[in-house]
Amino acid sequence: MRLLNLLFSKSNQIPRWFILLFDVGLCAIAYVAAVITRYSMGVPDSFFYAALSVIPIVLMAKLVTIYSFRLHNFVLRHTSVQDGMRIFISMLTAFGLLFLVDAVYSYFPQNTSHILPFGVLFLDFFFSMFFLGSYRAFIKLVYMRLQSHSDTKKIPYVVYGGGSAGLTTKRKLEQESTEGIKVVAFFDSEDGTQRKLLEGIKIYSSLDLESVLTRLQVKQLVIADPDISIAKKQEIIERCLNLNVIVRTVPPVNKWINGELSFKQMKQVRIEDLIERDIIQLNKEEIGKQVNGKVVMVTGAGGSIGSEMVRQLLHFKPSKLICLDSSEIKLYELDAEIRDLHRSAADTFAEIVVADVTNLSRMIKVFEAFQPQIIYHAAAYKHVPLMEDNPSEAVRVNVSGTKILADLSIQFKIDKFVMVSTDKAVNPTNVMGASKRIAEIYVQALSEHHKMIGSVNTTKFITTRFGNVLGSSGSVIPKFRKQIEEGGPITVTHPDITRYFMTIPEACQLVLEAGNMGNGGEIFIFDMGKSTKIVDLARKMVKLSGLTLGKDIQIVYTGLRPGEKIFEELLNDNENTLPTHHEKIMIGKVRQYNFQEVSERLSELIDSYNTQDNMIIVGKMKAIVPEFLSKNSIFESLDNNVQLPNSSDLRELLMK
Fold first, then answer.
1. What is the C-alpha separation between 343 and 346, in angstroms, rounded?
2. 154-269: CATH, from 3.30.70.260, 2.40.110.20, 3.30.1160.10, 3.40.50.720
């Protein structure tokens, strides 16, 4: 009884030395059986006893190979096909050793016979494999039978993926989880594997997902198929969410710790998994040619987009990467990350520069000191409600900062200037979007102006325009996640509000690709996929958290914020697009502006900063961008050609 408890209890294990001796004992029986079988046909007794006399040599060889291949370290109740292969290889090795011993013995002239006849060794090989494998299989079968009586208390899981990764996942779930898990089904999309068995468990078609999950009362599903497409994974997650089934994912094999999968690595899916898109295929060779060995500067390097641009650019080995930002703490964190990732080359790869892009004298010194050849301009204020309250700062940073960098790029003959813009620049309804559109207009007009006057080796100005990025500063997803952790409520501005989303790495990859293909003056529009309803995003996040909407947590509608749109656009009504060689990047055909007129109006706008009068500043912005029509904002009155009071009178009226 004690032996059975040791064999089948998870909390106890038979000593490894006991299994080693037991295996050697079985090998002794196998060898004797081989000798008896071989010499049972009336052979003289001398041959029989001579074969038995070398048992110590045989057992020594078996002991060495069993120990070397760690057969005694198997967890007997979890014997697998891989374990069977190790038994085969170890016994084959023992066969080879013994054959070699016999060959050496027979080599000497005084030895006229074999001490280990080939027939005996051949039979011993098969008998040993049979005995060692059979008793392990027997223990596993008994264990599985005993387990079946206690499985009613375990949490039912299913695994999506009927291959080796699925099998490994199943074993890790049942072995390592402290919850008490039983895998009750496998799912696979391949027709050839459906309705088959894997370790006694049925493999079902993904078409049967809902019926099987409901019938077996499954609590969680683990996606273990390494080849599953992003679209298929998202479909599986959505179907599971509708049944309140929690979904976990297994990381790619190359991310397993020391080549081994653990239960802790099976992470619960996040909302990002439902918005993720297929990996972008970059023209890495061409980007490498453009960046390798060059001095590259990234402004706003401490921000969400800027820091990811830095990470990706490091792979292309620029001679110097200038990481420029006005935030000391963000640059400190970025510097520490770069040094961790590129310790041997941190000093030569990256230069951390604390600077404000709106400080002309400081930026001149930066250009003079580092002589950048390519600039990725990501520095900007991007938060819509904050800029609606602080339009002078939107003008100072987004407009004046961009103008300073663009002008210096011409002065210092920068090769390329790639500006990161936003979908909010299209038919802007807020100050932030309008400020970015004005920056776009200036950069485009400057580019066309220098082309027209025939400037030699002029800077190629390229603008990239895309929507919201997941996880960026001010993004709705971190906000919802925090609200869910705090028990709610989740605040959504409007039930119909939608947004385009892409991941930060995807956005930065497209910026690199667009920067590479641009010839100057283009506005590149990124394929943002389908727009997502924000309230649906919130509902899915609640389900992914295992909570029930309306019971555990509520959604509250707070109303549109100043300047906020219900629907975002990527092109205005008078624009259209042209395709490029990259399916996710288009060229926007936009209105051309006269550089002299733009330059004069821009100077007036920048000078209006000193007034600190929001009405005057926004009025000048609307004069430059006629399609800028404010929404849910005090600046709506500027769109009606009404005689406006001055700022102090306006504040007085609003107080009343």
1. 5
2. 3.40.50.720
